[in-house]
Amino acid sequence: MKNKGNQKHLTFEQRVDIEKGLTENKSFTEIGRIIGKNPSTISKEVRLHAHTKERPDSGYTHPPCIHRKNCKVTCLCDKMCGIHCKLCRKPSFRCTDICPAYETAECEKLNKPPYVCNGCGKKTHCLMPRKFYSSKYAHDEYRSVLVDCRVGINQTPESIQSMNDLLVPLIKEKHQSIGHIYATHAEELGCSRRTLYSYINDCVFDVRNGDLRRSVRYKKRKKPTQTSAKDRSYRQGHNYEDFQNYMKEQGLLDAYSKLGDFEKYNQEMVDTMKPIIQATGLAKGEYAE
């Protein structure tokens, strides 16, 4: 894929190429060349959207314990048999179900690139937790975050309360305008003037539009006219297209201007106007009184 520049967001097609490259055991550099992205972008994408795949069967054997090699725990069940519990072969007993020291072992390969099991040859029968990168899952998660981050108010409850404590006495008691408040308290508010008007309109604060003296005097705006400027009567016959047609009819717009030879075209215009200038005496500085 040809690189189209420093684009911030990955597309679904690019995520499909990333998943395909991981399945084929390609490096982040090779995948970056295919989709036109930096290898660090691929690395961040994989680590951010990799998800652990659960076992389909709830009765599937548990992942091995990290203490399994040196474990010497015995007699976890009711029978005092003295056998190490990790070697017990009872069908209804698994030490991983009741051992208080059980800790799930994790594959060390997941701590280094490619961070997922897409291209691993042991992924079908591996007992350890497995991580996979899915293009559909990653894109759905990306879309969810993209929408959620644009919903609601980009403020914390503490900042909303501090802004409310500042605005209420200034607007309701001192009757100051938003412009006056921003002239003295812009740094304390921490948002733009347009954003503050939106907050007030959405009833975020204890201040309403009725408390703003100028806001209540505004009339509802009329709908914009649907007629364009070129269709109005005073523009008819005075557009640039009409000017070009006039130049063609008079023979002033010849082949030189069409081909871009504007210097020669301008020189001809000067030669045409020179006799008129000399006849009127303007060239000698003689002006009519």
Structure description:
By secondary structure, the protein is mainly alpha-helical. It is 42% helix and 2% strand. It is built from 11 helices and 2 strands. The protein has helices at residues 12-23, 28-35, 39-49, 95-98, 135-148, 157-173, 178-189, 193-201, 240-250, 255-259, 262-280, and strands at 51-53, 130-132. Strands 1-2 form a two-stranded antiparallel sheet. Helix 1 packs antiparallel against helix 2 and helix 2 packs across helix 3 (39-49). It is elongated, with a radius of gyration of 38 Å. The protein starts with 11 loop residues before the first helix and ends in a 9-residue tail after the last helix. The model is unreliable at 283-289 (pLDDT under 50).
